[in-house]
Design goal:
Elements: H1 2-14, H2 28-52
């Protein structure tokens, strides 16, 4: 979870400039932006799990 917090912060501040991309052409910017959104989603999922906890397991 700490990794997601740090990665989400760094990618948010830098607008994904440090994200790796499989290509180095016009599409690289899109991959960096996608990676930034994925990090934000991972952080949101982690906090949702922490906050809701057992309520997620109920039927």
């Amino acid at each position: 979870m700490l990794r997601n917090i740090a990665a989400s912060f760094v990618h948010g501040i830098s607008n994904g400039a440090f994200a790796s991309t499989p290509v180095e052409n016009k599409m690289a910017g899109w991959y960096r932006r996608l990676h930034r959104y994925v990090q934000a989603f991972a952080l949101t999922a982690d906090w949702t799990t922490v906050i809701l906890g057992r309520q997620l397991r109920r039927k």
